[in-house]
Every structure is written in structure tokens, then in C-alpha cells.
Design a protein that fits this description.
Elements lengths: L1 H8 L9 H11 L1 H9 L4 E4 L11 E6 L15 H10 L9 E6 L27 H11 L4 E6 L17 H19 L5 E2 L9 H13 L6 E7 L4 H7 L1 H6 L2 E5 L7 H5 L3 E8 L5 H16 L5 E5 L2 E2 L13 E5 L4 E3 L2 H10 L7 E2 L11 E6 L5 E6 L21 E7 L8 E8 L8 E10 L4 E6 L3 E6 L22 E3 L15 E4 L2 E5 L9 E5 L15 E5 L7 E9 L6 E8 L10 E8 L3 E7 L5 E6 L7 E9 L2 E6 L2 E8 L7 E6 L5 E8 L1
Parallel strand pairs: 1-16, 2-3, 2-9, 3-4, 4-5, 5-6, 6-7, 7-8, 8-9, 10-11
Antiparallel strand pairs: 11-12, 13-14, 14-15, 15-20, 16-19, 17-18, 17-20, 21-35, 22-25, 23-24, 24-35, 25-34, 26-31, 26-35, 27-28, 27-34, 28-29, 29-30, 31-32, 32-33
Helix pairs in contact: 1-2, 2-3, 4-5, 6-7, 11-12
Family: Belongs to the glycosyl hydrolase 59 family.
GO molecular function, one term: galactosylceramidase activity
Subcellular location: Lysosome
Length: 683
Amino acid sequence: SRDTRRRAARGGRGAVGMGRVVLLWGCFLLGWGSAAAATLPAGGYVLDDTGGLGRPFDGIGALSGGGATSRLLVNYEEPYRSQILDYLFKPNFGAALHILKVEIGGDGQSTDGTEPSHMHYENDENYFRGYEWWLMKEAKKRNPKIKLIGLPWTFPGWIGRGENWPYDYPDVTAYYIVSWILGAKQYHDLDIDYVGIWNERAFSSKYIKLLRYTLDKHGLQQVRIIASDRLWEPISFVLLIDSELHGVVDVIGAHYPGTKTVPNALLTRKKLWSSEDYSTFNDEVGAGCWARILNQNYVNGNMTSTIAWNLVASYYEELPFGRCGLMTAQEPWSGHYKVEAPIWITAHTTQFTQPGWSYLQVDGHLEGGGSFVALTDGVGNLTIIIETMTHNHSQCIRPSLPYYSVKPQRVTFYLKGSFYMVETLQVWHSRLGFESGNSTLFQKLHPVKVWKGSFSLDLNVDEVYTLTTLKTGQKCGCPEPPPPQPFPSNYKDDFNIRNPPFSEAPNFADQTGVFEYFINASDPGDHVFTLRQVVVQRPITWVSDADQTISVIGNFQWVNFTVTCDIYIEKPRDGGVFIAGRVDNGGIYVRRTKGVFFWVFADGTYRVTADLAGKEILMKGLSGVRDNTWHTLTLNIQGTSASGQLNGYPLWENVSISKPSNGWAAIGTRSFEFAQFDNFHVE
């Protein structure tokens, strides 16, 4: 029967043969269960460990990066920053995540910004750039057992030797990635548990084998390899025909699998993970999506880990995929953050399981729609998680969800084997209130009494229940954070900080290139401490980075404002920099960015353009600006008119602008070139 096949598929490592072997083995292993199922009343489900357990559970996690998704988190003031981190990582508090996956920054655009590489150039190593090191340490501080994963989206240009491809010199790429893992340990005492290949892009079997060899050569045998962070195929097929590759890949990671796997993936007998999933706006529907896939990735697809993109929405909301995090923290200037419903949906699983537990062998489809999973620690503890998410209230951003129906139902669970002696189960409940607007999130109810090995439960739609022998769950709450406030309407940064806690200035969100604090040893004057654009070669890209570098800041709703900044062109002849306003785009769409851009060039000319690409010229002329000299640029935008000043004197005025009607402020450069910025001011 279909049920028997489903049960056989749950049979862990042994259940990956094909055809009759699996069916016969499944019937033998689950013969008692099938017979019992035949006599069960409607809505009855048997939980039994006598015939062995299902696949080991590997944990629930979330992703920081891919890209720059935690950008605004770092400059929250205390106590708010620690409260946010507690909600994400602290055991028995909030999401209590088991896994933190981070981007290995590569200087390229990776969705909502760029993340800096530990090696901008071939002879350069710095393990204190960006914020992922800090985030991993904060996670470990709260949960020493949390698993850490690194995955690159982009690579510095030198790795490709001029080609937009990381596999032509696989020894160089392997050395680069292993350096990051060694740096994590040497400088931050962080043990990386898993490493990936290249996010959602092609894999190279030769490179993966060389990566394993390089890891082992450096004493990193404990670091496991995930491949290929894309689709189930072709990696599953290649693993079946290449025994050497099969020996070095530990986990098959698929993205947005829609809760389904493929036969070849099962045949490999590897751990199967949804290594990136969710990516959905974090309202009640997002919570419904997350609840459904957390269960059904295992029930339908044998996946033993699910990782959400992204961990926390700490980037400007108008960038792509705004608020697609488990919680929202996008206002460091006010301290406001929001613990969204997906945090508490996560808690239903994470607070009552641990990596190393095992799933029970049971078909987790409920007869009235919805699903359940049951897990055990193997020494008597049992956790059951039930979800009854309706179709329209649980659609993820991708893939599309075929229609199905869910109705209220009564379920009865029969506990057998070592669970027969369980007398009571703790109950935690969430109900997503779409019609009423009132959701109940992660509420502790009265324990359920188990009578002669069975108990019943009435389920409504759009609910999550956790029933568990563990008594450790908690819904912890911090005091309410401050109310939301817009970005300050008068904002200054002189970058005068000798030992900055992070390499990037607060609130600047790099969209192409990397802008870092810089100590200008050659300038004894007012410009010792500056912000410098440091990427001088186009990276190996993941999406279409712009040909210019740009960092945005401020309030996307700004209409009339003045931007002033001191600028220093370092590149002779064809170097150039800009300041801008009403900047309307970023992230994966950075190449199509419009706005009002005021450029000056090392050849003594200036331009005003309506786009980052510099093609829509509104005004041009001579400025007298030269490289290796400080100048002050001022851009004023009022209504449909803009004007510009150089060193306090008008350079151009009354330039007519039609659209965009609002947007961020920005700074940047003409190409991938060194340039410096100081005394930034927007009003």
C-alpha cells in the first residue's frame, strides 16, 4: 500500500533500496505497525520504537548572510542587542536555534548587500572584518552546542584570475575557504562544523575532493561537507556514480525543496537537509509556512534539518525580501525590534528536541490534513509536534503550493514500546488567528493524561501543538523595546574612531564594493580617520553587481534632503566618486538603481546623472577636482529640482528631476577603485 511505502521510506539508512526489497523489508519491519494500523479507528496513530528508530534529527537553524541580512543588528545599543540575540539563540527562551549558518563574505552582492572577505587581495588576511565572527561568538556564548556552517556566495576577484569562476584554480579556492575555517579557530576560538561549496551555483567534483583533502591536511577532519546548496540534482546522481565523491560529501543540502525529495537522494543514504528554506515575509502566513515545512520536510521528504533564510531581518526593509527573517530588527537608531510569530513556531520544535535525537518511524500525515512528527532521545523522552496549517495560510515564497484541504479533527495517539509507560505529556499550543487577528503563540496548556498508553486531542485548523515528556520549555519575554522611529532626519558621521568594534561604519549598507574604516597615515590633518572603498577588482559574482561601488544609508521615504561629504579620489586619470540622493534600489537589483547622482572625476570634470550606471546624464561640466586632494561635495534635492556645490561654492543648479520621488542617500565610486570619504552629513 502507499502507507507501507511511506513507512518504508521512513526506515532511515536501511530504507533506500528500490522496488520489492524496500517493500518487503518495510512490511517485515513494520508488520506489527501495519496490522495495528488496520484495526485503528479513524484518526488513530501508533508511536512505537520497538522496531527501531527513523533517521537521526540534525536540528533547526537559520542563516545570517546571503547577504548582509544582519547588517543593522550590530549597532543596536544594549540591552536591546542582547535581547534580540537571546530570542534567537538562548536555550529555552525563544527560537533556541540548533544551527547558525553564515555567509563566508566574498566582497560581492549576495541579496541585500555585500559582506567583506577575509582576503580582499591575495596577500591580505584579516579575520575581524564584517559581523559574522561576532554573531557566531554571541550564538556560542548562549548555546555552546550550536552547530556552525559556512557557505560562500561570492569570492574575491583574485581567486578567479580574471574569470568569473571559482573552480579554474581549485587549490586556490580550497586554500581560501580553509583559511576562513582556520581563522575562525585561531582568532575567535570557533569550531566550524560544516562547510558548503558555492551557494545555488554549479559545483565541481574535483574541487569538492580537493577541499576535503585540504581540510584533512590542516587537521580539520571534523569539518563536514554539504553539497551543493542548490537542487537535489545533479548532485545526488553524481554521488551515486562517483564513489570517491560519495566518500567526501556528508550532507546533501537542497534549497526550497517544497517538502519533497527525489529517489536518487534517498539512494545515496546521505543525510538530507533543506539547507535554505522559508524566505517568506514574517507575518502570520510566514509563520504558517514555517510551521508546515518544519514538519513536512521530514514527513514528505526525509529531511532531518531545515535552515531558514534569514535569521533576523536586520537590513533596510525596502531592499529585496524585506522582513523575510524569523524576527525583525531593522531600527538600531531607535532600539525597536519585533519578536515575530516565526520565532515561537520555531520554539515548538527547538525547545523540545536536540540534534542527536531520532525521528520515530511513522507516517506523519493526518487524515484530516496537516502533519505530525515524533522524536525521541532514545532514553525515554518523547516529543510530538503537530501542525494543521491550511493552504492559504501557509504559502511560502517558493515553490508554489498545490491545493490541499485541512479540517478540524480528533486524533488519538497510541504509545507503544518504551513510551507505553508515559503517564503525562506537557502541552504547548499556538493558533494563528487569521480571521480574528488574534494569534495565540507558544502558550503552555494543562498537561495531557495518557490513559493505558493512549490519549486524544481535538485539533482545529492553523494550529501547532507540541506534546512532550520534557518540562524545560519556557516562553521568556523581555520588557517591551522602545517604539519605532524613522531614521534620524539629521545624521552625521565623521568616522573618527581609533578602535572600531566593527570594520564598517554603522547604518551604511554596502550594495557593491566594501566600505571600511581606514586610518590615513599619510594625512596628518583633519582626515586621519576615514571611510574607504577597498574592493579594487570585480569579485566572482553571485548576481549582477554594479560596475560602480555604492553604499546606501538613511530613510527610503526621504524626498527633500541635503547630502554633504568630503571625498578623496585615489585613482589618477579615470578615478571618480559620487554622492547621491533618492536612491531607489539595491540588493540583487543594484544594477538598475536610479536616483540623483553627483559625480566628480580625477580628470577635472563632473556629471549629474539619474542612474548609478551613469548613462542618463542630466548635467555635465568642468569642476577642477583632482585626485589625491580632499574636496567637499554637497547635493541638495528639493521637489523637482537639484543643485550641487563643490567646496562650499555652487557648481551646478536648477537641474530638473522627475523620478524617483524618494529614496536613500548614498556614496560610491566610478569603478572598483580605492577612494575615501569623510564627514558625511545628511539632513
